[in-house]
Amino acid sequence: MTLSDPYPITTPAEVAPVGRGPFWQPGDIVTWTFRRFDFDRDLAEVTRPMRVITDGPDGAALWLAGGARTGETRIVGWEGTDPHDVPLRARFRPLAEAPTRIRVDGAWRGRGVLKIVPAEVPFSVWVLLKDDAPGPSGPGGPSGPSGAGARPSGVRAEWYVNLEATHRRTRDALFTSDHILDITFPVPTLPLHAADGGLDASGAVFKDVDELAAAANFGAWPVEWSETIRANGAHLLEHLDDYSWAFDPAWETTARALADEAPPDTAQPEEAQGDREAPASVRQEAQNSGHREHRSIPSGCYDRQFR
């Protein structure tokens, strides 16, 4: 099995694949552009200004700073709600009945994200930097057994795989499409980077499996597209070592250094993102949405049998 794109996306006429020159130079600013499979209908796209860290035959690494102004999309009738919080049945209607999407201004929350884009594959690897909230210093509670008080806050790094269309580039932009399904590595006892220096997929967790199922179940796109995306995720986790360049732990060091360049108050206030609390009915829908998934993943962790 090889990785494949479930559908084509609309791009400018003159595009080239990532991994082929002429390459961007470190410090260049390019626009990361997400275009949906139905982009031609509403012409609404997500745009993010990215600073080039490196670019070459293996791929590109791009940095999005915390607080950076972005272009986001919202669903008409739900303009004040993040699309992820809109009920699945409303979001994933067949194309003839699908809701209209519009562009809105937004900003990136958190310290920033380093996106590593390997050449000619339908995914990118993200190192997300987030502020840790102060927490207890030990199992005894806020003061801990020694009464030392709360530990200071810090910055944590999260590794994340965004399954998306194979990337195409122009002189100043990159084009892809979000494939809904993502992969996280949230299990502390099963880290992505093993002690022996290898990569370990046993702690991987598929994210947004309910949304991927809903896209097929409610008629937004063919069942085969969801199956292709699932297969891409399963294949990646079974062949992590083939993509070791993108998962090099040195990228976390790079991301932390880049996050330190920005002052901690660059994050925009919540109102600037358009991310207001969803209505109670929407929150309940999100809680129940997992029941629509074709198959659950045991303990939330990756298992080839349940891909």
3D structure, described in words:
This protein is of the alpha+beta class and 307 residues long. The chain contains 7 helices and 13 strands. It has helices at residues 39-42, 88-91, 209-217, 223-238, 250-260, 270-273, 280-288, and strands spanning 16-17, 29-34, 46-56, 59-65, 69-75, 101-107, 112-118, 123-131, 155-164, 168-169, 173-176, 178-184, 205-207. Strands 1-10-11-2-3-4-7-8-9-12-13 form an 11-stranded mixed sheet. It has a two-stranded antiparallel ribbon with strand order 5-6. Helix 3 packs antiparallel against helix 4 (223-238). The longest helix has 16 residues, at 223-238. Mean pLDDT is 83; it is low at 137-152 and 263-307.
List the helices and strands and how they pair.
Elements: E1 16-17, E2 29-34, H1 39-42, E3 46-56, E4 59-65, E5 69-75, H2 88-91, E6 101-107, E7 112-118, E8 123-131, E9 155-164, E10 168-169, E11 173-176, E12 178-184, E13 205-207, H3 209-217, H4 223-238, H5 250-260, H6 270-273, H7 280-288
Parallel strand pairs: 2-11
Antiparallel strand pairs: 1-10, 2-3, 3-4, 4-7, 5-6, 7-8, 8-9, 9-12, 10-11, 12-13
